[in-house]
Structures
1.
Amino acid sequence: MGIYKIVTSLFVALKLKFMAITILRFLNIILAALLAGTSFGIWIGFNPANFSPSTYVEQQQNTVTMLNSLMIFLVVIATIVTMASAFLQRKDKKVFISLLIAAVFFIACIFISRFGNKPIQDNMMTWNFESLPADWTVLRDKWWDFHIMRTITELIALAIITWVSIKKGNLTTSGYFNVTSANTGKWSEGNFP
């Protein structure tokens, strides 16, 4: 009876870890997709070169006001979830390293936003379309370049996270449920957490 309890406890622990990994993978894809999708939508739909000065100032100030906190929240949570997912899947080195690389892309997005976009946004929030600074188009174009850079980093992170999550062999194993033979169903050595 003692061995049965030990084996059952190990199986329950493995099953809980598998469920946690599955939930983290799902959350990771959703968060990364929301983040990258929002940025991609801005990239495709709001090219500032097509706006008049008054439209641009109004649109930019509204976008910053409405999305700034949400985007910060999404990128921070996506980074944390990606790192947690990497940690839980650390036995599979390819998955672990891939997810850490995706987290680095999210961190790059944070730095691009903080040191590229934010200083320009802070300046833009003081603009009045009736009296724009002389170099407003230079600042607009710099902000846009930074936005494209961060969108690309988010899309790369999303692609890595999605690839790791759906890659054949990663869907059910995660390095924990490796079976030596489909016929015997025996656990392979060293796969217990």
2.
Amino acid sequence: MDPLNGKRCEQRFLMRQLEGIRRRNRLLKGIALSCLTLIGASLLMGQTPQPKMTVEAQEFILRGKNGKALLRLGLSADGMPGLTMWDKTGNARAVLAVASQDMPMLSLMDRDGRVRAGFAILTDGSSALTLSDSVGKGGAELTVNADGAPSLTFKDKNDTTRAVLTLNAAGAILRLCDSNGTVRSSLGVAPNGSSGLALSDGNGTPGATLALETDGSAALRLSDPNGKVRVGLGVPTNGQAGLVVFDAMGKPTWSTP
């Protein structure tokens, strides 16, 4: 065998082996580059903030382990939103809703389902807080008008108004009522500082009024059942008291000094 031909065959064999190795290396590099590209894209996708999820429904009910409803968020029959919460025995205890005429209100119930406290923004712009007894009557009601004038009302077990305290443009006034709701006595302080006390009969007709001005002068008037002043007693700032008696027509019949 010719030595030169043997070397040439060996060289050609080695060249073919090297070319195969180069092709395999290029393939492995391509696979590695593709893997790196996929890994980088996955990392970038993982870093991208996910969009916020929005749940849309007409009713949402939260149930306890026993399957009983504990909370309901949904729409009323007239399409207004409301939130109702029940206790573990199934009694409604709290309701937050927007009632008809877009009036928001909050009602709190006792374990028997009776409304004991309620808060609402009324259609005239005033706000009201109501507290009731165990049968849903009586209690107290605090209201604040749209112009900021507050009023506090107390009611008995028959749901009859017995006392009202108001603060408005006329001043601070306290009215006390009988079991029929008739105002029997009123005490007030006017914006100018003068004060007054009025006592009325069962029909609400003033029978006696006492007024005290800021300058110290005082006046007492006694009236008949028709509301006609029959006796007037006054003490002016000079200290000289005067007494006048009137007839049924309101004409003075006697006076002193």
3.
Amino acid sequence: MHQHANTPVRRFQWDIYLPGLQGKLPKYPVEYPSLDRAAAEVLPSCVYSYGTAGSTYRRTPSSAECDGAFKPTRRTRFGNNTLREPNVEIGFHFVNFDVPGGLQALPTTLAAAAKAAEQAGASWFTMADHFFQMDNLWPAEAPMLEIYTCLGYLAGQTERIKLVVMVSGVTYHYPGLLAKTATTLDVLSAGRLVFGLGAAWYERECVGLGVPVPPLSERYERLEETLQICRRMWSWDNGRYDGKYYQLAETLCSPQPTQRPNPPVLLGGTGERKTLRLVAQYADSWNGAFETVEEAAHKVEVLYRHCEAVGRDPGEIQKTAFMLIDPMADLDGFLRTAERYAALGIDLINIMPPQDTTDPVAFASRLGEQVIPRVAQIECAPKIGRFGGPPARGMTVTSKDVATVGSRLSRHIEIRG
């Protein structure tokens, strides 16, 4: 049920309790529009009271730009002008540069793949920050292009799709220069960068090109300092940064990124002790590759524990999954997996075409025809406790969301056990 744009509605607030689970779930205040107070009774053990959360407006379609006339009925995840729907989305990962037609066809094929993914309704176009082709997929001698040049090229070829660094190895770039490079891409793409970082792993590439390969523990320390430096450079604090590994006399970055307060920071990886702690403390988005849904559920639980330790609302962190798969080969099976991911609060699945896929443009188009419309119908878990993360402070949803949350919780409880 949509309200007229710019017409405020009252909301009420409740603390959520689930029968039989008292003491297992914290109570989180959630603000809903009071369009239909009867909807509150779908959770009979809810206690609600009127609040003063402010105005709410009808939502715009996913990935639509906000021109001020339309505003989301739930918060914008990254605080920029891209609005999100609470359903599962698809990303498209381009990493195989050995395309039909060879080197001469590569510029047009890369652009066509990004345009096809955008036209298909994919939310992300992702690329890897490597200089040798990954030898766990293809020979290292296979073609590989540098990521920021590619994404800058694609910024001029596309209009809406997010351009995602999946991900930059922390040892490949000086942090201050990396923040400036990322800022340039965010400005030229009109605020479409998702800034991905990781601890780096491809030793052959580093040794081959003369890049230092510190021990893993040091790489994680450098990763944390890089995150701090980027956050500092994307603020109005131009002062010194003095870390263990990096010292910057001025953290000056002019202009600032288009996305404020910063481009969304994505961390990739599933390491429980270090990676997920950094996700909880610094990230806006998290990407993991999982062997099973059960593994994903465990990693999400670990992330929530880290969030609790640092006082972070896990609902503020977008959770995404990476899959090397052709979903069209078993669409029903893929949709079942997507539903189980959604039950965990994972709201985007990034698809990398199988290694034997030779036409990325056709693959992206098929995603739009067969997969994305079906996936878009899958609702993510309600932001309640461990089943999807607590609701983000200030998040608002429609009365339809209220009316369905009880049945959805039953389904998610059954899935998670």
